[in-house]
Amino acid sequence: MSPPGLYDRPPGTDDAKLIDIFYPGDQQSITYGTKSRVGIGGMEAKVKAALWALQGGTSVVIANGTHPKVTGHVITDIVEGKKVGTFFSEVKPAGPTVEQQTEMARHAGRALASLDPEQRGEIICSLADLLTEKKDEILSANKRDMELATTSGRLSQPLIDRLSLSSAKLNSLAIGLRQLAVSSRDSVGRVVRRTRVANNLELEQITVPIGVLLVIFESRPDCLPQVSALAIASGNALLLKGGKEASNTNRILHQLTQEALSSHGVADAVQLVSTREEVEDLCRLDKLIDLIIPRGSSQLVRDIQRAAKGIPVLGHSEGVCHVYLDNEASIDKALDIVRDSKCDYPAACNAMETLLIHRDLLRTPLFDQIIDMLRTERVKIHAGPRFASYLTFSPSEVKSLRTEYGDLECCIEVVDSMQEAVDHIHKYGSSHTDVIVTESEETAEQFLQQVDSACVFWNSSSRFADGYRFGLGAEVGISTARIHARGPVGLEGLLTTKWVLRGTGQTVADFSEQGSMKYLHENIPVPQKGFS
Amino acid sequence: MSPPGLYDRPPGTDDAKLIDIFYPGDQQSITYGTKSRVGIGGMEAKVKAALWALQGGTSVVIANGTHPKVTGHVITDIVEGKKVGTFFSEVKPAGPTVEQQTEMARHAGRALASLDPEQRGEIICSLADLLTEKKDEILSANKRDMELATTSGRLSQPLIDRLSLSSAKLNSLAIGLRQLAVSSRDSVGRVVRRTRVANNLELEQITVPIGVLLVIFESRPDCLPQVSALAIASGNALLLKGGKEASNTNRILHQLTQEALSSHGVADAVQLVSTREEVEDLCRLDKLIDLIIPRGSSQLVRDIQRAAKGIPVLGHSEGVCHVYLDNEASIDKALDIVRDSKCDYPAACNAMETLLIHRDLLRTPLFDQIIDMLRTERVKIHAGPRFASYLTFSPSEVKSLRTEYGDLECCIEVVDSMQEAVDHIHKYGSSHTDVIVTESEETAEQFLQQVDSACVFWNSSSRFADGYRFGLGAEVGISTARIHARGPVGLEGLLTTKWVLRGTGQTVADFSEQGSMKYLHENIPVPQKGFS
């Protein structure tokens, strides 16, 4: 198979790397293959021709039109500026490439991971202090972003809400960071399991950082210090890719983060990727990045899940959350919980999208009060097919029961029983957060057991589904994935484990039928997190 | 955008499903769109034409040549028998489709998850009993597979070794299963974290099954009861896809598994997928399958990681394990550990592939004894570039320092120090299992801390990297992924968690600056696993 472009060494050798952009000055760093093999030879001649064309003022790309990674439209891809093959350029861009940033981050990340937990805590506290000290500068950068967003008119109101910072938001950020600095003391290197495998053969499972994280976020710049603090606390290196709309705010928040990191000589552990970098190109760096965390719209998350080849993605693509009002619901609790779940922050993923009402509640005072409350709060109501069939004059019927409105809108649907509510949630929900309001403990416990979502709540607002409110400190995101981390993800989601075995020369042959040793497999107690 | 084939309802509506194979008798189950929209209408006419052609004896596929999911070679894909669009067929195949099997499994899996832990334990013990009781039948089915494999000559010796069952293997399987039945008692529904969020607002994080697992395995039929027992213990539904070469053995092992399951009415929770199903097609069932676990060659795992779109894959694509002999290594330990790591079972992923030797050991008795031992054990030696440069007459030089031989072969390379060994392992290893042999505790602890692999061992054989030897009961695989589960994966890797919040009407507004409530976030101790 022919190679997809120019490599720095003969393709197929241990350390050969595909060169994305080739500058004439780089020629010494390339080793061409000496043996002439079919399909590999001839690259040196191609490079000479390309450089000759470049000197004459012609842009050149060396690419492979039949390589399976290419969609089959090499020429159009090149014209559209996609990273295909090797591009020959006279001009070296300013600043490091994203690959170099990743290497710098991994290197500094290892130094960060080898610091004492107290030192990582100091970095986070110093970042928290900077958020308060430099509040004016942050808010003025944010104001510039807000003005640009408003005048350009390209962002919807919910996105503009997410973009906005305030004194209160910065204060609550700083509180979360300090909480994290304390709770993270026993995160990295913590023993989670200890087993005496045999005499003088002891096994430990300990927590370690995942490696290099890539966090891609839209609009919300408060995400930057939160995620940075989590990466610092967990000893991970971090690449941050923010949206253009928040570039001023992100720039200063990243400067403050590096300022905090530099107090222990690890400023490079957190890198801000240029807004010019395409998300799709970042998602292809599967040898360099260990986990991608998208924070933003469902569309962003879906796009990244599709683009990320071989890199795990932690995130929720949708938050279609339900509140189910049981026939034994308390009026007061129902009103408070529905109002809070829908209206507290409608743009959030943990806001209610569908209200399920037990049939017996129709034409009761509770029902009328709920509808009045939603009208007072200016919530636009869409009717599910069954709800519509009960009404003489119903609101517009929903297009899909799977809609995430993300705004002051919701769907109302009628169900015959708690069981039907569970079935509805399994069929149309996104397994994010679902709530039952009832005074019956028995019904509640059945709902909590049966509903297969990341968060299931009884008599409390869906808006509690959040790392800070759960007491996890800062939050890295909410995951509706079913593996690794589920629901609000704090520090634990950024750690993995490794197994450490200490022996005195044991072999598995010693434990064979003819061998002299026996497995003991005794669990040895370990200190419980939070109670050390 | 035009749809990729025929749907049972108008495409875009909530419950529309793409039909893979259409039989003339199925026509009643389809609802066509009533409104004529551009690009969606006209399907009814196409179906009539297709049925008319089918009656005339012509095979028909309705597909979309411009749909982005299609690689661009629709006609060749159809001719090669790939699942593209909707295929019209006169003949209904015998048995359920894989989609129907998945639904059956999910349904029975929910019943399995709602059993008492003791009942799931009974099923596993009864499977263990059956492995012993029906030993003769199993071994005779396995003999048929072995004979076919040997006469066909298409399997390499390591693969044939993996295919082979024996009395001893079945016994050790049964022991593992009974161990699992006991240790799994407190797996599902276990509280892992409990927090008093505020007065009368309590949060619990509890373990729950992941959902529907797909395990794809080659050759090793002993994998089937192991993985089935793990799925049963963890309350997961399971689809098993075995290799053709083990079909006789797999069939009887699956029958015994269903026999054990049927004692509690959940026989369908474990399904054996027909050998005709293509792995690529199974990897596309992302709405139906929650986790794919490939067990087999590195090539199989890599293929599945590439094919699995949106479904997480748990597995290791390579096991390039190192043993590093430090300059302070004990001769006896070094000999035992190198022999066991390489020769005990060379086809295993935890076997040693590269032996790193400290430079000071060259031309010492230890070095000579190691080489003599490897020769006696008939291990073919390949020389790393540095090792070759030290020798007058060296063995053949390695092509790549990243080779997984999977046979009685290994690479030897020389390093200057423990630090250089760590760097070598990071550069060429697969982060699976790496071992240091040394009498210096200080050097050992540095190696254990720095090497970033799933398993890091001091003075013990790499072959201990195994769920059974770690005391995890049966093993679902070894993961070199960095998230969710790492290293040998037992039951824990098949569980996820959900968050259960029990309140009395609380809203997040109650906790705002104007609100009446305060977060407490008190951790409440929970019973530790294995010490209940």
From TrEMBL, chains A, B:
<keyword id="KW-0560">Oxidoreductase</keyword>
<dbReference type="InterPro" id="IPR005766">
    <property type="entry name" value="P5_carboxy_syn"/>
</dbReference>
<keyword id="KW-0521">NADP</keyword>
<dbReference type="GO" id="GO:0005739">
    <property type="term" value="C:mitochondrion"/>
</dbReference>
<dbReference type="InterPro" id="IPR000965">
    <property type="entry name" value="GPR_dom"/>
</dbReference>
<dbReference type="GO" id="GO:0004349">
    <property type="term" value="F:glutamate 5-kinase activity"/>
</dbReference>
<dbReference type="InterPro" id="IPR016161">
    <property type="entry name" value="Ald_DH/histidinol_DH"/>
</dbReference>
<keyword id="KW-0028">Amino-acid biosynthesis</keyword>
<protein>
    <recommendedName>
        <fullName>glutamate-5-semialdehyde dehydrogenase</fullName>
        <ecNumber>1.2.1.41</ecNumber>
    </recommendedName>
</protein>
<dbReference type="GO" id="GO:0004350">
    <property type="term" value="F:glutamate-5-semialdehyde dehydrogenase activity"/>
</dbReference>
<keyword id="KW-0641">Proline biosynthesis</keyword>
<dbReference type="InterPro" id="IPR019797">
    <property type="entry name" value="Glutamate_5-kinase_CS"/>
</dbReference>
<comment type="pathway">
    <text>Amino-acid biosynthesis; L-proline biosynthesis; L-glutamate 5-semialdehyde from L-glutamate: step 2/2.</text>
</comment>
<dbReference type="InterPro" id="IPR016163">
    <property type="entry name" value="Ald_DH_C"/>
</dbReference>
<dbReference type="GO" id="GO:0055129">
    <property type="term" value="P:L-proline biosynthetic process"/>
</dbReference>
<dbReference type="InterPro" id="IPR016162">
    <property type="entry name" value="Ald_DH_N"/>
</dbReference>
<dbReference type="InterPro" id="IPR015590">
    <property type="entry name" value="Aldehyde_DH_dom"/>
</dbReference>
<feature type="domain" description="Aldehyde dehydrogenase">
    <location>
        <begin position="97"/>
        <end position="363"/>
    </location>
</feature>
<dbReference type="InterPro" id="IPR020593">
    <property type="entry name" value="G-glutamylP_reductase_CS"/>
</dbReference>
<dbReference type="InterPro" id="IPR036393">
    <property type="entry name" value="AceGlu_kinase-like_sf"/>
</dbReference>
<dbReference type="Pfam" id="PF00171">
    <property type="entry name" value="Aldedh"/>
</dbReference>
